[in-house]
Write a structure and sequence with these properties.
309 residues; alpha+beta; D-Maltodextrin-Binding Protein, domain 2; Alpha-Beta Plaits; 3 domains; seven-stranded mixed sheet; five-stranded mixed sheet; 10 helices; 32% strand; elongated
């Protein structure tokens, strides 16, 4: 019997861990949810935090799980998906830098955002016990956000896996009573596992900001949009960034985020990503007009309604 088809309770030790990685099946591509709803691509498995965020953004959506972030954008740009729900920033781990690059590279627009409280849970097979768990699998970021809990339970050895919900999926497929997973309550429900311990994250002020992204021709700006995201590059000379930001300040535009990313193939040159609160569409237009003469490149990534906790 191959490692991918073995079921039952694996023997402890290295072979059990090898079965986990040998049988890994990232991101099944079957659609989940309302087949007639807006098709939203996500990175990760059904039951993931991205799945939860997508349904918060569009409650009756049809979810299209993808293996990689690049696959999410490829599905959107090709028309296989109508929209994409992507994490852009976590309040503890920081920005998802790859997604900034993909937003800039593709002809897409941000049309909405949401904030999702990230609540981690220790999940296991029905019938498993906390004391019987020898291993716990999850995405490296999730493991890092539960360090204190894992340190308090040293009998469980942590292992990095490709996805939070994917670790629950694998747990159920292998029927491994000696392993646990750290993921959302939605993942436990979706795959038929049980929550042994809820809310095990070290810091309860753990939020992830998600964008809803559409192809630019289909993007519609909400009338009550009060936030704008921009990407721009500047000439490499003293004071250029300060001068650009001072133009925004002079308009009374509130800068809520700034991020820099290197320009590929041009050492020590950068793309700057900024989020600004705007009181009206006209204020957003004035901000763009003020920046344009100063920028070698300027792209509006989107205008949307600011999400609140």
């Amino acid at each position: 019997m191959s490692s991918g088809s073995q079921s039952g309770n694996p023997a402890p030790g290295k072979p059990a861990v090898e079965r986990w990685y040998g049988a890994r099946k990232p991101a099944a591509h079957g659609a989940v949810g309302n087949p007639d709803g807006l098709r939203i691509a996500i990175q990760g498995e059904p039951g993931s935090f991205s799945h939860e965020a997508a349904l918060r953004l569009v409650p009756d959506a049809c979810i299209l799980p993808q293996s990689l972030s690049a696959d999410v954008f490829a599905a959107l740009v090709s028309g296989a998906a109508d929209a994409a729900a992507i994490p852009i920033e976590n309040s503890l781990a920081g920005s998802v830098l790859e997604h900034f690059d993909l937003l800039l590279a593709q002809d897409v627009q941000v049309v909405a955002e949401t904030l999702l409280r990230i609540r981690h849970n220790l999940i296991a097979m029905p019938g498993a016990t906390l004391g019987g768990l020898q291993r716990v699998f999850s995405h490296p970021v999730a493991l890092a956000q539960c360090k204190r809990y894992l340190a308090a339970h040293p009998h469980m050895e942590p292992f990095a896996f490709y996805d939070t919900a994917g670790s629950v999926k694998q747990l159920v497929e292998l029927q491994d009573l000696n392993a646990g997973a750290i993921a959302s309550s939605a993942a436990a429900q979706f795959y038929g596992a049980q929550i042994l311990d809820a809310g095990i994250e070290d810091n309860q002020e753990n939020y992830t900001r998600f964008f809803l992204v559409r192809r630019a021709p289909q993007a519609v700006t909400a009338p009550d949009s009060n936030k704008i995201s921009l990407a721009f590059s500047l000439e490499n000379r003293p004071g250029s960034l300060v001068h650009a930001l001072s133009q925004l300040s002079s308009l009374g535009t509130n800068l809520t985020k700034i991020e820099s990313r290197p320009v590929h193939g041009k050492p020590w040159e950068y793309i700057f990503y900024v989020d600004c609160q705007i009181g009206s569409a006209a204020e957003g237009d004035r901000a763009i007009t003020a920046l344009q003469p100063l920028c070698a490149m300027l792209k509006v990534l989107g205008r949307y309604r600011e999400a609140l906790t």
